[in-house]
């Protein structure tokens, strides 16, 4: 197993700034980034910065690809329907749950910073709970909306059928069918 990259030993704020510089330069200029780190008192070789940058670029491109896919999925779904059933929320929740699962797995592997991983795991857990609440709330709203629409349809049918001289028994049977009552 190769030794751990020295970039991971940098303080979080320096590593965060390095990440920003890597992204803003299009993952180029590794020599100047190694020099920038050396100016701040950190002895990290150009090749270590390059290996770290390549890994970060791969993660970045994968994340951006996921964002593009999610955006296209959302556009396609909203173009097809008015989304009363909450399909868009469900799809988004599934995508976020998948990403949170990936984050959880990655954090389990990040044993070099257990305190930080535990803090992030708590955030992931809260996010999953929030997604669950949003999804349940949307489903409850959709169920209540369907019941309300069915009730209005049953009342409209009752008025129309009574005006046509149907018996109360026949009207009640049709209302039960509309409302889904056995």
Binned, the helix content reads over 70%
As an assembly, this protein is: single chain
CA-based shape:
rod-shaped
Low-pLDDT ranges? none
Separation, N- and C-terminal Cα atoms: 66 Å
* Radius of gyration, taken over Cα atoms and rounded to an integer in Å: 28 Å
Largest sheet: none
Structural class: mainly alpha
Series of secondary-structure elements, N-terminal to C-terminal: HHHHHH
Number of strands: 0
Tally the helices: what do you get? 6
Pfam family, one: Phage_Mu_Gp27
InterPro entries: Phage_Mu_Gp27
Protein name: DUF3486 family protein
Organism: Halomonas stenophila
Q: In words, what does this structure look like?
A:
There is one protein chain. Helix 3 runs antiparallel to helix 4, helix 4 runs antiparallel to helix 5 (114-163) and helix 5 packs antiparallel against helix 6 (168-179). The longest helix has 50 residues, at 114-163. This protein has a domain at 1-59. The protein is built from 6 helices and no strands. By secondary structure, it is mainly alpha-helical.
